[in-house]
């Protein structure tokens, strides 16, 4: 399958989306002229290892491999896990020429990526994402991080992988809730960038929910194409990359206010996108019919569209904590119709409050 390139000069890298890519991993590296070093380190977690580690190990027979597993969950995207991995790399005498492979969802990818960015000042890094969110979002673009008790992703680096290999068949074992959460980010790409993607999601919603590999592979590829274009234009989030945060200012507030685990990230982003769309409708930038279409698509994907009931102070308290706040002003991504978006901090707070209220009472 033809690779898709993230164009970043000499740090450019290919993304390969192919069913069975896991078993074909060495051939894919070869086809893309990525010479695998003798020493490989696979970072994964217990859950993913159970499903996919044996396949990858069999494909890589003959290489010297160190497998490091961490616990499952966001709480393991921590400095403690970082230190645990570093200690094992040092104990095993892993050299600077080694490559670190992340096999897992966004948690494993962000953590392993930060290790790769900093072990001996940087070693080669390869992403093999296994959740839909990681396929379409976290594995592409080079943001790596661990959390701190003081906040999410506070410690990290921009560090691009050498290669991203996506096997859509891995999604077959993903929980329904994690799968649907990933779909929220997929819809987001359509809203900010691609009306055709939205139409295709509407047309194939059943096949997508059934995780039909050919359909889902095409959807993942399109999302990666969009993310690659945005990252190539704005690697360090000075401008266009911020549009990827559509629904996230409200979403982060929902996640934080509800407490850990109540809403998944994708669920919160879905409800957040609805508030942003409502705001756009009020500003006359989105038609009511477009708003209804987006709402219906999210409902069809099994995602929540009604935000939780919080008082306005709580919303603002959490939105001001969002990392996109610049010089004290909360910045909003506003969809302009469907297929385009803009970033602004010039929105009357009352309009925001009204949009939240209307999204709440809509049916
Ligand atoms: N770097 C970025 O640009 C970026 C972008 C978005 C999100 N993120 C980060 O990504 C993380 C969330 O990622 P996530 O949603 O993938 O969560 P996750 O990595 O925790 O994976 C979700 C769950 O699915 C399990 N799992 C993974 N693959 C599986 C498979 N194929 N079959 C069965 N189970 C599987 C995991 O063990 C976990 O329990 C957050 O930490 C977030 O900050 C990073
Ligand atoms: Zn997100």
Key terms:
single chain, 363 residues, alpha/beta, Dehydroquinate synthase-like, alpha domain, two-stranded antiparallel sheet, 14 helices, globular, binds zinc ion
* Dominant shape: globular
Query: What do the pLDDT scores average to?
Result: 96
Q: Give helix % range.
A: 40-55%
State the low-pLDDT regions, or none: none
SS elements, strand count: 11
Give me the CATH fold name of the largest domain. Dehydroquinate synthase-like, alpha domain
Number of helices: 14
Strand-residue proportion: 15-25%
Assign the CATH class of the largest domain: Mainly Alpha
What name goes with the CATH superfamily of the largest domain? Dehydroquinate synthase-like - alpha domain
Strand order of the largest sheet: 1-2-9-6-5-3-4
Number of domains: 2
N-to-C CA distance:
43 Å
Sheet with most strands: 7 strands, mixed
């Amino acid at each position: 399958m033809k690779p898709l390139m993230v164009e970043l000069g000499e740090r450019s890298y290919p993304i390969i989306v192919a069913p069975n890519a896991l078993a074909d991993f060495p051939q894919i590296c070869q086809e893309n002229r990525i010479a695998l070093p003798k020493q490989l380190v696979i970072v994964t977690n217990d859950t993913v290892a159970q499903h996919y580690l044996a396949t990858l190990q069999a494909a890589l027979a003959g290489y010297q491999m160190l497998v490091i597993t961490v616990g499952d969950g966001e709480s393991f995207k921590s400095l403690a896990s970082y230190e645990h991995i570093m200690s094992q790399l040092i104990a095993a005498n892993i050299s600077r020429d080694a490559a670190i492979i992340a096999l897992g969802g966004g948690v494993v990818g962000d953590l392993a990526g930060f290790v790769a960015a900093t072990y001996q000042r940087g070693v080669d890094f390869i992403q093999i994402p296994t959740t839909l969110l990681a396929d379409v979002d976290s594995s592409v673009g080079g943001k790596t991080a661990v959390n701190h008790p003081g906040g999410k992703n506070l410690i990290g680096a921009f560090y691009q992988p050498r290669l991203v290999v996506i096997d859509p068949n891995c999604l077959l074992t993903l929980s329904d809730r994690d799968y649907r959460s990933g779909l929220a980010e997929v819809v987001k790409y359509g809203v900010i960038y691609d009306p055709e993607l939205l139409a295709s999601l509407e047309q194939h919603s059943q096949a997508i929910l059934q995780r039909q590999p050919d359909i889902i592979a095409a959807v993942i590829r399109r999302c990666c194409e969009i993310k690659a274009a945005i990252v190539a234009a704005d690697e360090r989030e000075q401008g266009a990359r911020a549009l990827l945060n559509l629904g996230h200012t409200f979403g982060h507030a929902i996640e934080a206010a509800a407490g850990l685990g109540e809403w998944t990230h994708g669920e919160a982003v879905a409800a957040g996108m609805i508030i942003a769309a409502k705001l756009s409708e009020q500003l006359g930038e989105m038609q009511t019919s477009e708003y209804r279409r987006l709402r219906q698509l999210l409902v069809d994907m099994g995602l929540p569209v009604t935000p939780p009931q919080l008082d306005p102070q709580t919303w603002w308290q959490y939105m001001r904590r969002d990392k996109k706040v610049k010089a004290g002003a909360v910045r909003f991504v506003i969809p302009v119709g469907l297929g385009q978006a803009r970033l602004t901090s010039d929105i009357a707070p009352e309009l925001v409050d009204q949009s939240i209220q209307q999204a709440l009472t809509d049916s």
